[in-house]
Amino acid sequence: MNMDVIVSLCKRRGFIFQSSEIYGGTGSCWDYGPLGVELKNNIKRLWWRDNVQLRPDMVGLDASILMHPSVWKASGHVDHFTDPMVDCRECKRRFRADQLDEGPWLHFCPATKGNKFTVPAGEPCKHCGARRTLCPECGKGELTAPRQFNLMFKTFMGPVEEDAAMTYLRPETAQGIFVNFDNVLQSMRPKLPFGIAQIGKAFRNEITPGNFIFRSREFEQMEIEYFVNPRDRVEGRAADEYWHDRWIDVCEAWFVRYGMAGENLKRHEHAADELAHYAKRTVDIMYRFPMGWSELMGIANRTDFDLKQHAQTSGKSLTYFDEERKEHIVPFVIEPSAGVDRALLAFLLDAYREEEVRGDKRVVLRLHRELAPVKIAVLPLLKKRPEIVATAGELRATLAREWTTVYDDTAGIGRLYRRQDEVGTPYCITVDVQTVGDPDKGEAGDRRVTIRERDSMEQIRVPIPELPALFRELLGEGTWAAVTARYPRANA
Ligand code: ATP
């Protein structure tokens, strides 16, 4: 799968645009267009439904982006949220020292009279055997020694730009949950184990943003802090270790449930030297992105680090009263943390297909029906017939009350189907002459429309009054096979 294909589809069909494009663009920020915002909202809504609404042990939160600067001192972000940065002395480009060998590198090979080669990531030159030491982009410049660069964006709260007013744009949503731990405890009275979920923007001044929306400077996270009593045992294991494994399984299964192929997902266990300063164990769920296996989300056991740090810095007690043991404890926390944008990119890549249909190429996004940005497209077969257009317009209005439904009459029916396939619309409805009849000839219509299913391209003929119930079935738990057994096929 080529990233350029998805980038071009996203721009052409209104999923994702470069931010501030008319001013030359900001390299590291992206805007979600009309279809992108629907897809993104669907991802967030499904994640919230499955992880909050359906679970008795979860509640939600929406904390502010700007927080007290002490939050970031206590959490360790001021001192530790850094990446090692190097500069090329020649071309002045900047790189993350730990990612220098993750991409191909430019090499002027001495064994071939200085010929220029692009050598694959991490490999030596096959002519001279040299490994990369110079700048991977220009192939000529020496690199400076690494310096630690803090990724938090600084800003000022209030009208005076002075150090006392300085704070940060949050680099993760998690801290908003930790500092509200006691508020949730007192207001909702949950019993351990329980979790608090949050979806929201995060900001990181990444040294090398890139790979489209995979790494940007403004992005969205879906995070859970799941609090457990570390003294409890579940199935013979410490509760935090048990729940860590449970959440890894739940998170991976969620991506598969909404259509990601299992073979495109794998787990990466962090080695001791890779673990963040707060983590006892971290497992990443990796996706096979076009640039290689890369992190889709991480699930960390953050122990009691954050609650203890905030209790110490704020002077407020952040404990839970264990009724059984009659003691105050500081819970351990398991943190499943996913990027909305990375999930969206992976869902798009996984759904993209180029197929051949009767000698023609068809591009189709085989998105899960609950993810599809548009659920139903209503298409008039002839836009010159006012009765057809009026019926199609009425149908769109009725169905739009329950599902994202669009009307399109800007091309012939073949083109219209292809356009909907390309954006993943699971169902198209066609209104034709048979539906409305011909008043000039005194012919009544049959008030039936054709429904076409995206993946099989099969078509059935359905009476208009039955449409809402039928789509409740098709866009709910029903299957196309069950529905086609009840209605006559229409000719493709
Ligand atoms: P990476 O190693 O890729 O920089 P990370 O380990 O720093 O990621 P976390 O701090 O674990 O990332 O953040 C949790 C999730 O937030 C990531 O798995 C990813 O989905 C998302 N995320 C993090 N940074 C970015 C970014 N710059 N752009 C888009 N999504 C991001």
* Low-pLDDT runs: none
> In angstroms, what separates the terminal alpha carbons?
30 Å
Decide which structural class fits the backbone.
alpha+beta
H/I helix tally: 14
Structure characteristics:
single chain; alpha+beta; 492 residues; binds adenosine-5'-triphosphate; globular; five-stranded mixed β-sheet
Task: Give a written overview of the molecule.
The chain is an alpha+beta fold. 28% of the residues lie in helices and 29% in strands. It contains 14 helices and 29 strands. A seven-stranded mixed sheet has the order 3-11-12-20-17-16-15. Strands 24-23-25-28-29 form a five-stranded mixed sheet, with helices on both faces. A three-stranded antiparallel sheet has the order 5-4-8. Helix 2 crosses helix 9. Bound molecules: adenosine-5'-triphosphate (ATP).
Q: How are the elements arranged and paired?
A:
Layout (H helix, E strand, L loop, with lengths): L2 H10 L3 E3 L11 E3 L1 H20 L4 E4 L7 H6 L2 H4 L1 E6 L6 E3 L8 E5 L5 E5 L27 E4 L3 E3 L9 E3 L5 H5 L2 H8 L5 E10 L14 E11 L4 E2 L2 E2 H19 L7 E5 L11 E9 L2 E12 L1 H10 L5 E3 L4 E3 L2 E8 H12 E6 L2 E6 L10 E5 L5 H15 L4 E3 L5 H10 L4 E5 L1 H4 E2 L4 E2 L3 E6 L5 E5 L3 H8 L5 H5 L8
